[in-house]
Structures are given as C-alpha cells and as structure tokens.
C-alpha cells in the first residue's frame, strides 16, 4: 500500500516527526557511560505516553521477528545494527549506539534513527561509519522530489556508501510511511537511477542508510529480533522521515538545533 497525504494531514506528520526527533535527541543526551538500555526504553516510553502518542514497536510482530517486539525503541550496540531489542546491558565508553524510533501521533507515523558514540572515546572507525551513513542520508534526501524515482534515491545513497568502502545489504532499507510504519515503496540502499515508483507530493518516505564495516551479511540474535553483523564488526544507521513536496523534500524528523 502507498499512501499520499493531503494538505490537512501534513501538519500532523510534522508533529509526529518533531516528537520523534525530540525523543531521540533526549535519549542521546541521556546515553552516558553506565546507562542501561532498559532505562533508555523506559525513558522513551514516558515521553511517548506524555505526548499522547504510541510507539510502533510494542505490538510489532512481522514474519521475520519473534514478535511482538514488546519495547518502545530499538537499541543496537556495536555489532548490532537493526531491531536491537533493549536488554539489561550497561553502556561502556566507546560503544557505538544506534537508536531507532517510530511513533504514531494523531494517526500519522514518523520514523528516524541516529548513531553516536558513548562516552569520551571516539574510535576513528566508528566516526567514519557514522559520517558515511549521514552523508548517504543527505544524498538520498537531495535526490528526492516530485517526479524523481525511487531508484534515484537508492542510487544516491548507494554511491556514497560504496565510495566510502562499505558493503551494502539490500534485505532491509527505507520504506513508505503514513498511517502505519512500514508501507510501500521499498527504498533499497543501492539501485539504478530512473527506475521504480515516481515520487508524488504528499508521499512520506523513511530513508535509512545503514552499513556494516566489512560484511553485507546479517545474523539474528538469540532474542529473535536483534540483527547483527555476521563477522562481529561495527555497524551504523541513520534515518529520517521526509515528505515529498511540490518543490522538493521536507525533513520531518530533523532536530531543531541541527541543519542537514
């Protein structure tokens, strides 16, 4: 299903996006050495409930997971990259943490993810990976607009990731959003320009470049949810929800203090 929002629905999408951005930045600020992943989940729950919104993950039970997910936010550490199930783990200095959050507010979903390094250590490999996913995300957004094709976005993202030297997994990527979290069209993190669905004003897309340092193969954790790199290498993940407008793309999950 592909949903196209009308002019009365877009303001609600902006509200959902602002909430997701606010929660993620708050969680980043609280994620220090000694912080437990379960505390991050509890803090996210409190902010979501206070805002009168709903996490899209609590009841999430797709065919590839051991559902329902049962938590409010995805917390992926180091070699974990997607669908990180919060558990009793205390963050250490130098951990690479990815937080992924999808929230529904007033019937519209926004989805975003950030990766950052915990503590004072700044390993060069981690910094480079995070920067690569953020550059790829910027490139994908720049390629989006009315009349562009999904393949244009995929090609822009994939070009940045490939040039940075990272293998690209195509099992999981970006997607449409609207009244539900995962919709068509699928947005692969690599592809051919000029191919696929033509973008229209009112379409919401969650673009999410993610990489693993030396492999494109994922393995599923014993928890049935957390996806890790098959080699145990570091990973990173960046995501924004955008709205296609008459003259380009509007980022709905951009933190107030950040310019992308």
Automatic annotation (TrEMBL):
Gene3D superfamilies: Creatinase/methionine aminopeptidase superfamily. Its EC number is 3.4.11.18. Residues 13-246 form the Peptidase M24 domain. GO terms for molecular function: initiator methionyl aminopeptidase activity; metal ion binding; metalloaminopeptidase activity. Substrate binds at residues 83, 182. InterPro entries: Creatinase/aminopeptidase-like (IPR036005), Pept_M24 (IPR000994), Pept_M24_MAP (IPR001714), Pept_M24A_MAP1 (IPR002467). The keyword Phosphoprotein does not apply. It comes from the Bacteria. Belongs to the peptidase M24A family. Methionine aminopeptidase type 1 subfamily. NCBIfam families: met_pdase_I. Monomer. This is Methionine aminopeptidase. It comes from Kribbella kalugense. The gene is map.
């Amino acid at each position: 299903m592909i949903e196209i929002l009308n002019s009365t629905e877009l303001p609600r999408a902006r509200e959902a996006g602002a909430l997701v951005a606010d929660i993620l930045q708050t969680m980043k600020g609280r994620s220090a050495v000694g912080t437990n992943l379960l505390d991050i989940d509890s803090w996210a729950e409190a902010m979501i409930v206070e805002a009168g919104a709903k996490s899209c993950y609590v009841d999430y039970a797709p065919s590839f997971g051991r559902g329902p997910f049962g938590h409010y936010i995805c917390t992926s550490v180091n070699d974990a990259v997607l669908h990180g199930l919060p558990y009793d783990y205390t963050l250490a200095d130098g951990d690479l943490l990815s937080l992924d959050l999808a929230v529904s507010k007033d019937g519209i979903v926004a989805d975003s993810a950030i990766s950052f390094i915990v503590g004072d250590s700044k390993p060069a490999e981690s910094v480079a990976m995070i920067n690569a996913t953020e550059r790829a995300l910027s490139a994908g957004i720049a390629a989006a607009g009315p009349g562009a094709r999904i393949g244009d976005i995929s090609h822009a993202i994939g070009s940045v990731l490939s040039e940075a030297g990272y293998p690209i997994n195509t099992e999981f990527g970006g997607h449409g959003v609207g009244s539900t979290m995962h919709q068509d069209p699928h947005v692969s993190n690599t592809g051919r320009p000029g191919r696929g669905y033509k973008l229209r004003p009112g379409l919401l897309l969650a673009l999410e470049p993610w990489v693993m340092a030396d492999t494109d193969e994922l393995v599923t954790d014993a928890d049935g949810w957390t996806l890790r790199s098959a080699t145990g290498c570091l990973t990173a993940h960046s995501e924004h929800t955008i709205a296609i407008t008459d003259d380009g793309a509007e980022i709905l999950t951009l933190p107030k203090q950040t310019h992308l």
